[in-house]
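Re-run with default settings, no changes from the original entry. Doing this only to confirm the output is reproducible before filing.
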Amino acid sequence: MAVTKIIRVKDNVKGCINYVTNKDKTDEGTLVSYSGCHEGSADYIFKLALDANRRKIQDEHCIKAYHLIQSFAPSDEVGEEEAHKIGMELVDRLFGGKYAFVCGTHTDRGHLHNHIVVCAANMDMSGSKINDCLALLHKLQMTSDNLCREHGLSVIEKKKGRGKHYKEWLEDIKNPNGSKKSQLRNLIDEQIKLSKDFDDFISHMKDAGAEIAYGNSKKYGRVTKYRLPNATEKDRWNRGYNLGQGYSDDMISKRIARRLQILEERETLRLERAEKRKAEKAAMTKADKAIDRTKLKINHMIDTSDTEISSSNIKLQQWKNIQDARLAEKLKSELRAKYGIDYTQIKAKIKELEAENNRKSADITSNNKSMVNFRAFIENSKIYMDTYKYSQNYEKSKNQERYYQEHDSELNAYAHAIEMLNRTKMDLSLLRDKATGQSFIKGMQEKLQKLEEINSIHEQDIKNNQKEISELRKIQKELDIYHNRNNDTIS
């Protein structure tokens, strides 16, 4: 189980990064990783990306970074390296490599927890920022939960209403029947379905073996208390309102009344529909009745292959067979109109769509690798342009040690940038001229944007194809029943 949290950093990004990378908390720095930035220069690279924002809002209200916290439960059997890996994967899945970040796994508490600082501005130096909305927090927790499941860690399944205490949640995990509170809720739910009012409910609870008592509450007045059947003296009584939303005396009464009302409304509606059908049938002419008999009245095939035909059900079987035939004709017509295929070609069409999705997925993967390289290239080119002057001033400085202490972030960023650019055999003289360098970076940003657009189109195509595959499989399943064919042999 991992609990997540987001803190918006509007000031002192460097202090936040120092906290995350604290060697006393991260096993002497062995549990610290950087993406899109480097040790000693991360705060400067964050600032450079933020400065590219066209609005240039660098006041105290500007969000400069996001501090993500991912805490694992003490009961989770997760190692330090695995926890760190989960933290890195979490950011990659959230932002797709678009933002620089620093991840540190802290071991100084009774449980492992990841601290991650993510730059609010894109690595492509376009100035675009993370879309800060409520969905970000939900996506963070959902992504963290998915990663925990993949790594065999526990996850709190969310349910509507009051949250569970950790002890109760742990009992639900360990006990196949759930915690005692969960068992009590289930018992109450069952008896509500049998009751006509609260007194009748209490009678049903006693018949089921539950123990009933009464107490007083300043807020609710007289309240009912429950214990499970075969409870011991050590077992605690549970007041209804402590079991969660919907279990106080008042709410149980309302639930019973609401259930009876729904049943009454359903019965009234059923009778109204029956009367309406009877009236419509009585008003039909012979021609109307003939048309009505030819209408399709089912949505799914009725499998009659195992039904034994007798004189008592032969008419019903004939009606079912006619309805199956009409549905089959409708489905085949849809196949011809929408896909230009017949029943025997469904399998081939599904394979064709799956092959297309595989090709597009491969293109997306390839483009993602290219985009990572583009972002790194753009970022380092921009860093080189911005820090070249610090390198020159350092060479000319009479007190180089003092100059380095004053501009260590810029000089460290320059060293990493030039190392990366030299590996690409980039002509650095192009970047020393401001106009030429900016034009070059703009061209790279346009190429990056083009790849992002292509991936977006591919992702939508894959989504549409998947919908068609799902629809084709449903049609195939229905027609397989009609033709008495085993779906396993054809799909």
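Residues 487-491 have pLDDT under 50 and may be disordered. The first strand starts at residue 2 and ends at 9.
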